[in-house]
Design goal:
Elements: E1 4-8, H1 13-24, E2 28-32, E3 54-57, H2 64-69, H3 71-92, E4 95-101, H4 124-139, E5 144-148, E6 151-152, H5 160-169, E7 174-177, E8 181-182, E9 185-186, H6 187-198, E10 206-209, E11 215-216, H7 217-227, E12 235-238, H8 258-263, H9 271-279
Parallel strand pairs: 1-2, 1-3, 3-4, 4-5, 5-10, 6-9, 7-12
Antiparallel strand pairs: 8-11
Helix pairs in contact: 1-6, 3-4, 5-7
Bound molecules: NADP nicotinamide-adenine-dinucleotide phosphate.
């Protein structure tokens, strides 16, 4: 494993957890927030990346509706930014792991998407993330793309599980879409996989990382309530069409890890098992290592 782990987007959900875990594992960590390293600045990367580093690009414009409203910004951050990072890594001889998304798929398939399946993003977010994947591999063919989906901490943030956890602890009902299916991914499991990839022994250029199995958002919300002993009937199903949102989402974007496991990644645990572990942690962000 490289001596130093360099993380972009380090104040975000994945970057923050990764930075804490890298420090816990004894790595020298350079965790850089948007303010410290703006990946859209083509000259910035050379200040932060050195030979032998493992760079994990967690920086992205992830708000799917904001991306739809501002395609130029989305393209700059999700497509050009990763290319800048890749050029810098290739130039100095650093390893690069770039995080991407299930939203590169259209959602028309009804079995989990594996690496070789046809992409077909529906939204600006998905299209710009797909362009980012291609730009990274063009600039640095030995970089690794890790696509993940429905990532959560379950702690105090604004991820889906954290929000449902707070709803479970309060009163009233909550309406959740029952027509979007995906693979929930506990950030801890994603980060463990990112370290496996970072060791550099897996040669596939694109990998999928998600907990095993698939569910709808409605089923996921009910599972949160069930784990916490709250009344599951307080979670009501709605169709996503009843919630006005700017960007389309794929109706089905579960990820298959079949090829990724064959390539060397540890098989994923079932999403319910990972969820139970996440919810057993203190809600106040206790499972999140502190921001370095
Ligand atoms: N969360 C999910 O469910 C999910 C699912 C699939 C894939 N992913 C992928 O996982 C990766 C990490 O996502 P996340 O969940 O950690 O998202 P996040 O919490 O939104 O974090 C993204 C971080 O990137 C930063 N950022 C934005 N523009 C930047 C720029 N120009 N330069 C440097 N940093 C910039 C943001 O900072 P500011 O907020 O200050 O702008 C934020 O801290 C992304 O590639 C995302 O596409 C996430």
């Amino acid at each position: 494993m490289p001596a130093r782990v360099v993380i972009t987007g380090a104040a975000g959900q994945v970057g923050r957890f990764l930075a804490g875990e890298a420090a816990r594992r004894g790595h020298d960590v350079s965790a850089l927030t948007h303010r410290q390293w703006d990946i859209t600045d083509p000259d910035a990367a050379q200040r932060f990346v050195a030979a032998g580093d493992l760079v994990v690009n967690c920086a992205a414009l992830t708000n799917v509706d904001d991306a739809e409203a501002d395609p130029d910004a989305a393209y700059a951050i999700n497509a050009v930014g990763p290319e800048n990072v890749a050029h810098a890594c290739a130039r100095v001889g650093a390893r690069l792991v770039h995080v991407s998304t299930d939203y590169v798929f259209s959602g028309e398939q009804r079995h989990p998407y594996d690496i070789g399946d046809q992409t077909g993003p529906l939204s600006v977010y998905g299209r710009t993330k797909l362009a980012g994947e291609r730009n990274v591999l063009a600039a640095m063919p030995d970089a690794t793309i890790v696509r993940t989906s429905w990532v959560y901490t379950g702690g105090e943030g604004n991820d889906f599980v954290a929000v449902m956890r707070r709803r479970a602890a309060s009163d009233g009902t909550v309406a959740v879409a029952d027509d979007q299916t995906g693979s929930p991914t506990y950030v801890k499991d994603l980060v463990n996989a990112l370290f496996e990839v970072g060791e550099g022994r897996i040669s596939e250029p694109i990998l999928h990382v998600a907990n095993a199995g698939a569910c709808s958002r409605f089923e996921q919300a009910r599972a949160v309530f069930e784990e916490l002993g709250a009344d599951q009937r307080r979670v009501r199903p709605v169709s996503s069409g009843q919630v006005a949102r700017r960007a389309p989402r794929p109706a089905y974007s579960a990820l298959s890890m079949t090829t990724s496991v064959r390539a060397g990644l540890t098989p994923p645990r079932p999403w319910r098992v990972a969820l139970a572990e996440a919810l057993a942690q203190p809600a106040g962000g206790g499972q999140l290592p502190s921001t370095p």
